[in-house]
Amino acid sequence: MIDVQYNVDLARHTTFGISAKCDIFAEYDTVDDLVQLLCSPELQKVPIINIGEGSNILFVSDFNGAVLHSRIYGIEIISDKGDEVLVRAGSGVCWDSFVGWAAENSLYGIENLSSIPGTVGASAIQNIGAYGVEAKDVIFKVEAYDTVEHKNKVFSVEECLYGYRDSMFKHTQPHERYIVTHVQYRLSRKKQFNISYGALSKMASDIDLTLHKVRDFITQVRNKKLPDPAKNGSAGSFFKNPVVPTAIFNKLADRHPDMPHYPAEKQGFIKLSAGWLIEHAGLKGFSIGGAVVWPLQCLVIANAGNADASDVISLMEHIQQCVKNEFQVNLFPEVLLIPEKAILKK
User: Fold this and answer.
1) Interhelix angle for 211-225 vs 95-104, to 10°?
2) Distance between CA 275 and CA 189 in Å, rounded?
3) Using CA of residue 17, residue 23, residue 27, residue 28, what is the dihedral sign?
4) Entry pTM
5) Cα separation of 249 and 242, whole Å?
6) Contact status, residue 218 vs residue 130, Cβ threshold 8 Å
7) What is the dihedral of CA 102, 103, 107, 112, to 10 degrees?
8) What domains does the chain contain, in order, with CATH numbers?
9) Distance between CA 221 and CA 196 in Å, rounded?
10) Any idea what DSSP says for residue 270?
11) Which residues are catalytic?
12) Between 345 and 24, where is the model more confident?
């Protein structure tokens, strides 16, 4: 089924809850529906963007084009051999529901990614991550529709060119060339946990550790730190944790020996905590208009109730400048800003 609406306010379709209108808002239930939509005359000459739950996006102005929303649901086991289980999920499946499904079926590998907002499709585009685990660690293949060649394609995890909160899907020309429709994950029946990262290390002494205990612990931690979405909209982590050369880190560590840091994938580099940098730049609780640096987790920019997109952009740029001045480190947004050309460059 296809549902098409016109002149739609996107506030309720994004987790920031900030008003911006689009010319066309279209939802689709199947890949065939998606193809039919893309072939329709009214979508032939307008820009398009495909969204999931709108949890990692900010429309900085009205979008003069079509916003597509996947309702491709369903989870199925496509291979079950020994310890390895291949699972295929539709792009519209709520990510945390998928993690919960895996826990209910005693499948290991994604429990550390509990309570991350968004959809299955977004997990493959964004390469979501938390507590030492990233989506790329468990993705087997990604199925997508190619809007240029007009056909379905299947990409191996290597072809997706995953990096820190990055993939080739974010850098295609034209933008949104590939629309993710399904993702295949390689999960495990073997009881194994990754609890060496951050707060999870507290669980190392639990001899009766279960998937549900890990999920519950992570959910509690996130709920304590992050805004209640029913009261304060946000996009979760607004900035990427910066990755800097070891030489720069060493200079910073001399001044700030308690600065948290983590190994980076690239040799000779160290990952820093963006939240720590923002807090220690004196920005905890700082606000511009209705946008505020969330006091319990400075990595989050929250909507205090009356924010507009210009408030968020102004606060983002202020944070970037303050962190640059204090630490000589550049912060880059993890949140997708649409349309980018509407953002004033300084």
Assistant:
1) 150
2) 35
3) negative
4) 0.90
5) 11
6) yes
7) 90
8) 2-70 (3.30.43.10), 75-222 (3.30.465.10), 229-342 (3.90.78.10)
9) 16
10) E
11) 165, 237, 334
12) 24
